[in-house]
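Materials and Methods. Structural model of Nitrate transporter 1.5. The 401-residue sequence of Nitrate transporter 1.5 from Rhododendron simsii was retrieved and submitted for structure prediction as follows.
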Amino acid sequence: MKKNITEEETRTLDGTVDRHGRPAIRRRTGTWFAGILILVNQGLATLAFFGVGVNLVLFLTRVMGQDNAEAANSVSKWTGTVYIFSLLGAFLSDSYWGRYKTCAIFQAIFVVGLVSLSLSSYIFLVKPAGCGDKQTPCGSHSSAQLGLFYLSIYLIALGNGGYQPNIATFGADQFDEENSREGHYKVAFFSYFYLALNLGSLFSNTILGYFEDKGMWALGFWASAGSATLALVLFLVGTPRYRHFTPRGNPLSRFCQVVVAAARKWKVEVPESGEDLFEVSGKECSNNGGRKILHTHGFKFLDRAAIITSKECTMQAKECHNPWRICPVTQVEEVKCVLRLLPIWLCTILYSVVFTQMASLFVEQGAAMKTTISSFHIPPASMSSFDILSVVTFIFVYRQV
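The predicted structure was written out as tokens:
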């Protein structure tokens, strides 16, 4: 009995489970052992991605024979595809696969894309050998070779896009926010995560960018493929120690259920307090893993979705309610959280429009400039290193000051 009580006390309080679906034991799972593996994984995966992405516009102009405008447009479409696949990865993670499985599958796709790009570049694209620098043009390519190239880079987009929105959250899952000590670690993890991301891209923009600018494209791509493979291996090594949240179902349907339920009762008067609103107990008829969110007074029109009328089942009857007619307070509050985030998301649109140009027009501008200081040559892609160094500096300022 004493052993059972001790084990019960050491379980995490946020509802996470181990890889077997049992409640996670604090001392055996998560924390910094798993967190550091994920940080290194992120640094290596970012190095691999930017090893391709940061110089892709130059590869398109020097190796594939596109003009500047066409190459910049191609890179913008490719970058946009990465973000679109991020929506796919987030949806699969939340609805069906969970974050661990989603990260593992999409990282494997990422590795396949990088290996395919490295092979096609070495065998077909960078011909004659050493072409693709500023002086030596490459020969023409067949339709099959072009098709293999585009298949490779869009596999990279699919793999990285599906992986990126989940890995940061999965890393944060390793820290129990209900525990005061681990909750502090969780806040620190996000800063270190962004630091790892920028250090990985810094290596790509300087070292790998230098070799690729000299025409050693296959070497740069093979280095990216090796980095991504090592990242995947490290990620899998931590499998026994990871904490997991179980998938909670389709988030889009949960969002729509609240909107529809509230619209159906638009004439019903909203109560002043949230005490009379519908809420389930524990995990009963709930997809939220038993974790409740307290009622808030913002967006009160959505509270109608949780008002119990004669048409809905009651808690006393212990019948599962129709989610399109009545939703628990926690589900309503989830929708409110999304609505509160909308202004932040909208503010990032203009920033993203400018930031995207760093991988296309900025690099093309750098290639057109004088890139030597004395006898030292600066690769055009290294222009973005100033952005990375400033981010690293301000992460330190944020954490310390």
